[in-house]
Amino acid sequence: MPDRWIFYSVVLLFLMGETAIISANVLSASEFDVQTLERPVLQFMVFFAGLLFSFYIAKSDYRKLFKAKHVYLLVGVSLVSLFIVLVKKLISGKAVERWLFGGSVQPLEFAKIAIIIFLSYYIVSKG
What we know:
- By secondary structure, this protein is mainly α.
- It is built from 5 helices and no strands.
- The protein is flat.
- It starts with a helix and ends with a helix.
C-alpha cells in the first residue's frame, strides 16, 4: 500500500465532497426519494473504481509505459479529441461546447493529463 496518509487524505476529501453532494440533493426527510441518492451512489462507485485503478498504477512499472510511441499516441488522441470538440462547436453554432459524446466526456481533462505526461517524458529524455 502506498503512503497511508495520502490515502487517508484522499478518502477524507471524498467524504467531504460526498457530504456536500448529499446535503445539496436531499431536501428533507419528509421529501426523501430514492432517486436523490442516485448521484452520490454513482460517485461512490466511480471513486472506488478510481481507487482500485490507482492501486494498480502504483504497483505497475511506469518505465514500460514511458516510451515515445505511447506518449505521442496519448498526446495525439488528446489533440484529436479537442479538435473534434472544436468542430462540433463550429457545426452546432453554440457559444460554448466543451463536451464529447453528448455531455459525458470532457476531453480537456484528459488533455491536462497528457500534457503532464508529455512534459515529464520530455524533461527526462532531454535531461
